[in-house]
Every structure is written in structure tokens, then in C-alpha cells.
Amino acid sequence: MALTKAHPRMIEGIPVSVLDFGADRTGTSTSHSEIQDAINHASANGKAVYIPGGDYKIAGMITVPDYITIYGDGPETRLFRDTSVSTFDMIEIKNTAHISLKYFLIDGVEKLDNGTAANRYCGVRIWSDGGVSPNDIEVIGVHINFTTSGEQQTEGNRAALMLEDCYDVRVSRCKFYGNRSAAIMISSKPPKVGPPYTTFQIQIEQCWGIGEQYPYDPSFPTGFGSFITGNQFEDVIISGCFCKDFGFTNISLNGHRQTVQNCISIDSDYAGITLGHSTEGSRPEEVIAQGNICVNNGQAGITVSSAENVVIANNVLTGNCVTNTADAQIEIRWDANYVANEAQKISITDNQLADSKGVGILCEVGTDLFISGNSIHDGELAGIYLTEKNATEVMSAFITNNYIKDNGTGTRSAIEVNSDPEAGTRGQVNALCMNNTIYSSDISTKQGMGITAVGSLADVQVHENWFSTGYVGTLNTNFGARNTKAFNAFSSGTLTLSTRLLTP
Questions:
Q1: Distance between CA atoms of 169 and 204, rounded to whole angstroms?
Q2: How many C-beta atoms surround the C-beta of residue 64 within 10 A?
Q3: Per-residue burial over 101-129, b = 16 or more CB atoms within 10 Å of its CB, e = otherwise
Q4: Cβ(415)–Cβ(381) under 8 Å?
Q5: Which of 181, 223, 232, 445 is deepest in the core (most CB within 10 A)?
Q6: Which of 231, 292, 304, 235 is nearest to 265 (CA)?
């Protein structure tokens, strides 16, 4: 990634201190001009810029030229916005490259009404304005607090950290607290229709974000943004991040090739992680969500909108769908703009799902689904629910080796395949359910049905599944000692039972 080999101009000689150019570290007088003079001098002489610990009042934008490192003493180096002047982007990297920002704090001081365009600004804005795309950029250990942005707006994109029309950017060990709307936004300058995009090769790792804290000011518009959001990009990797309490989805991406791995997402008002969005005009491809923890989010744990080549694996999702029980811990969603066969090659494997207010795994579209090795228990609705909402698409699903226990009430199923036309337009669903373990502690109150098929377009085959004592229905002649029985409640679909005898 960025700066794997530092440019000589960035490490040559003794660094320049902003104090030598008259910057006031007490914060009494403004220092943006003095800091800018130090940066310009260092750039011209091949030196880095050092901002010692202290409070520096910033009343105007600081611009960053090519080939330079700017660093401080961690959060003890505080650049705070002068609130007596109109808002401005505090640090701008525009049409320049080979830059490193390290170890300082940007403080917006107070959050403004983001319903007013004049109040929106960035802590750091990395963007192209018709010139060279910024590239070979790293932002390390920078804290950005209490800025005001409006995410994507007609007058220009804004976020605490804005990445627009740039590439080869690494953001590492940064912290974001209390920013109004987006903390980090990744985008190409609209309008763009499909790849290739001008924003690509973005890596965000080991960053930390806390959203705007209660109580919210009631005079502000509702909705409080995301930790990481964006669209119209290629090749983005988010890894090892922690985020909590954002008013939209904590991590929300809709790009071409995107990975979210080993992140923790807690207490968003919407989903924990969203990959793909129906309103953005582009469909994501090569979507990976693996090793994440999503807890107590208002809607889904992980939701994917109509993507192609999806891997959702080894995630731990607990207590999601708090405010919207129609959602699921993991879901593949249909929307009104969906075109048949856009969602393909979907693999949902080895996830741990517990204590949801909604469904465990919900799939509404997709032609090739592999659902295996998941543990789904103690949810309030079905364990796995498949329905094809595109009438011309055929969903083929292989559901195997899942452990499904005590989901829903006595009227709900561990696995339900539903093509009921009364629920709206539906397409064909072909499902093979094999080697699943289905357990209910009390079928009168928990998961009363094992595997069900509803509607004439549901074609289900059932082989060698294990059901706990208490399920009724046609006996399946697998190991009798294991209380293996077929499912009950099979309504108007097509059922094929395995009758093959097995030898222990």
C-alpha cells in the first residue's frame, strides 16, 4: 500500500517545527498561516513538518503539497477550528501525492446543523478537482472529532475524512468521535455509471469510531451518518475496525470489489454492515464479509443488496434486528431495481447467529446459494428463510451441516422455503437440505416446524437431517436411535425424502 518506500524528500534533514514560524501552541491566536508557512518551507527544502504538542487555533484551510510528512505528538497536538469564522475544510490534499499525515488531533469543537450546506466541512479532504488524482497517501494515528458533514451532497461530498477521486490510500489507527454524519467517506465525484471508478485501492485498518452521542440536539435533522460509507469505488478493504452508535449503518459500502473483515460493529440505528445499496445505481461485485462481530444493531447484522460473488463467513452476529424484526442477522435483499440473475454465487458459511429479533438467514434473490456450517439459535423468527422475489429468476440452494435450535415460536420453522404467491410475486426455489441438525427444546413454544416448503414453486429435497425428539411427520429411515424424522408442515410444495438406510 501507500509509502512502502518513503520518498527521499520526506525524510531528508532535521524536521521543521511550526513553532519556528510563529505558531501559537496556547491557542490564543490563530496559527493556520504559520503552519502553512512551515509546510511550504519544508516542501521546498525536502523536510518534514513537526507540530509539537499544544493547542493550535485554525481559522482557515491548510493545504498540503507533494512529497511531505506532517506529524505531531498524538492527540496532545490539537488543531481546533476557530468557531468565530465560517466553516472550512481544515486540511486539504488536492491534486497532490506522496503525503503522510501522522499523530495529531483535529477538533471541530462543536457540531453544527448539517441541514445547512454552509455548515458542512471536512477535517481532512483528499480529492481531485480536475487535476492529478491524489495517490500514495497515508493517514496514521490521526484523531478527528466533532466535525459536521452531510455525506454525499450536490454541492460536494463532505465527511470527517473524505476520500474522493484518489487511489493508493492507507488509513490506519485513526480515531473518530462525535462527528455529525459520516466519519469516513469513500467516493468518486458523481456522476459515475459503472466501473472503472477514479477512487480505488483504499485500505482502512484498525480504526475506531463512535457516532454522535445522545442526547441529540432536536434542532438538527434526524439521521446521524455512518462510520465508513461510500460508493462508486473499486478495491476497498476495511479490516480490524471498531464502530459504535452511528445513526445509519455503521459500515455501509456500495462499490466494485469490497471486503470488510475482522471488524466490530455495535449499536447502529440501522444495520451493522451493509454491502450494496439499491438506490446508488450500481451493483457491487466481489463482496466479502468475514470474521466480523455485529451486536445489537437496529436492523440487520450484515445485509447485502443484490451482489454478485458474495462470501459471508465466520462472522458472529448477536442480538440484531432490535427495531426492525422484518430483517435478519444475515440477509441477501431484493429491491425494485433488481434485474434477474444479478445476484449469483452466494456463500454463507460458518457464521454464529444468536438472539436475533428477526430471521437468522434471509435470502430474497440469488441463483446459486451455498449455506453451510452456520449455528443459528434463539432467534424470534425462522432460522433460515428462502424466497425468490424475482419471478423470472430460479434460486438453487444447497443447505447443509447447519445447527438450528429454538428459533421463533411454535409456528415457525428451522428452515422455510417459501414461494407463496399470496406474499407477492415469487420465482422458483430449488433447495437441497442435507445433514442439518434441527433441535427444539419445546416445539409448542420454539421452532415448532423443522423444514417447511410453501407454494407450488418450492421444490425441496431432504436428505439425512437430524431432528430432536418431539418433531412429528413422516419417519425418515436414517439412524432410528438419533430420533431422525422428516419435517412437518409441508404445504403445496414438492417433497422428496431420503429413504436410504445408513450403517453406523
A1: 8
A2: 22
A3: bbbbbbbbeebbebeeeebbbbbbbbbbe
A4: no
A5: 181
A6: 292
Sign of CA dihedral 373, 259, 226, 364: negative
Cα-based distances in Å from 257 to 1, 284, 313, 457: 17, 7, 16, 33
- Lowest mean pLDDT: which of 101-110, 374-383, 443-452? 443-452
**Minimal CA–CA distance to 96: which of 132, 71, 70, 120?**
132
Give the Cβ contact number of residue 430 at 10 Å. 18
CA distance 501 to 479: 8
How far apart, in whole angstroms, are the C-alpha atoms of residue 251 and residue 248? 9
- DSSP 8-state secondary structure symbol assigned to residue 267: -
Cα separation, 416 vs 432, whole angstroms:
12
> 179-188 burial string, b = 16+ CB within 10 Å, else e?
bbbbbbbbbb
N-term to C-term CA, the chain: 53
Of 301, 306, 332, 304, nearest to 317 by C-alpha is 301
CATH 2.160.20.10 fits 1-214+224-248, yes or no: yes
Phi (first) and psi of residue 147, to 5 degrees: -90, 170
Nearest to 269 by CA among 289, 291, 244, 303: 244
On the question of pLDDT at 503 being above 60, the answer is no
| Across 339-363, average pLDDT | 93
The full set of domain ranges for the chain reads 1-214+224-248, 382-504
- 35-75 tens-digit pLDDT: 999 999 999 999 999 999 999 999 999 999 999 999 999 99
Question: How big is the chain by its Cα radius of gyration, in Å?
Answer: 26
Q: Judging by beta carbons within 10 Å of its beta carbon (0-12, 13-18, 19+), is residue 45 exposed, middle or buried?
A: exposed
pLDDT reading at 202 higher than 60? yes
Cell numbers at residue 499, please? 429413504
Mention every residue, 6+ apart, whose C-beta is less than 8 A from residue 420.
426, 454, 455
Q: Which of 116-130, 290-304, 326-340 has the lowest mean pLDDT?
A: 326-340
| 367/352 Cα distance (integer angstroms) | 24
Quick check: 468 and 462 in contact, CB under 8 A? no
Please, which residues have CB within 8 angstroms of residue 319's CB and are 6 or more apart in sequence? 295, 296, 354, 355, 356, 357
Q: Is the dihedral of CA 1, 179, 177, 53 positive or negative?
A: positive
Using CB atoms within 10 A of its CB, is residue 131 exposed (0-12), middle (13-18) or buried (19+)?
exposed
- Residue 339 clears pLDDT 60, i.e. is over it: yes
- Stated length of the chain: 504
Give pLDDT tens digits for 314-326.
999 999 999 888 8
Give the model's pLDDT for residue 340: 84
